[in-house]
Amino acid sequence: MTIHSEHPFATPEGARDAARRLRGRLGGQVSLWTSGAGAGRVGLTVSSLMVALGEPPVLVGLLDPDSDLAEGLQGSTHERCVVHLLEWRHHDLAEKFGGQMPAPGGLFAAAEWVDSAYGPRLADTETWAECVVQDVRELGWSLEVTCRIESATIGVLDDALQHRRGRYSHQM
User: Fold this and answer.
1) In angstroms, rounded to a whole number, what is the distance separating the alpha carbons of residues 49 and 63?
2) The model's pTM
3) Whole-number pLDDT of residue 166
4) Residue 5 in domain
5) Which one, of 100, 108, 104, lies nearest residue 82 by Cα?
6) Residue 61 and residue 33 in contact, taking contact as beta carbons nearer than 8 Å
7) What is the reported pLDDT for 131?
8) Which of 18, 87, 90, 153 is most exposed, with the fewest beta carbons within 10 Å of its own?
9) How far is the C-alpha of 122 from the C-alpha of 111, rounded, in Å?
10) Parallel, antiparallel, or unpaired for β 113-114 and 80-85?
């Protein structure tokens, strides 16, 4: 076995995409978007999001267009979603919903959920928004999803899960 100081399959320094590297340095709060009910539940870890104030306030996220969540939100089946702000204790859950860690029994077997009219809500999260999808469009290599915020529950976020330069960290 050989131990490498660098990732053995990493793109060489001179060939790395500058825009991708810039995005990685911005970092952001990690959220979990969920939608659907029963066997049709879907979810995705998202760190590219923002809230635009106004009447009504909207939440905008950039989703992987190949994800089950993106597919569901584009159809008429899942026009509502719950957007959770995650904490450090949720980093394994974020990895599972991001497709980076195995999820034995399925994604929703990894935690406790509360059913709502907007989709499954993570039982142990303190901050979330219930949203209705207003618009979905392609933007770059992502799907821009604009949601009207119907309600928001704001709790203490002492140990926020952050994503920067391809890694999770926490801010206390």
Assistant:
1) 9
2) 0.85
3) 73
4) no
5) 108
6) yes
7) 96
8) 18
9) 7
10) unpaired
Q: What is the CATH number of the domain that holds 58?
A: 2.30.110.10
Q: What are the tens digits of pLDDT across the range 45-94?
A: 999 999 999 999 999 999 999 999 998 888 665 689 999 999 999 999 99
pLDDT in tens, 88-119: 999 999 999 999 899 999 999 989 999 999 99
For the chain, the DSSP string reads ----SS-TTPPPGGGS-HHHHHHHHH-EE-EEEEE--GGG-EEEEE--EEEE-SSS-EEEEEE-TTSHHHHHHHSSS--EEEEEEPBGGGHHHHHHHTTSS--TT-GGGGS-EE--TTS-EETT-S-EEEEEEEEEEEETTEEEEEEEEEEEE----TTEEEEETTEEEEE-
Average pLDDT on 6-34 reads: 73
Tell me if 3 is assigned to some domain.
Answer: no
- What is the maximum span of the chain, computed from C-alpha positions, in angstroms? 59
Pick from 14, 33, 30: nearest CA to 122:
33
Q: What is the spatial distance between Cα 146 and Cα 61, in angstroms, rounded to a whole number? A: 7
- Whether residue 7 lies inside any domain: the answer is no
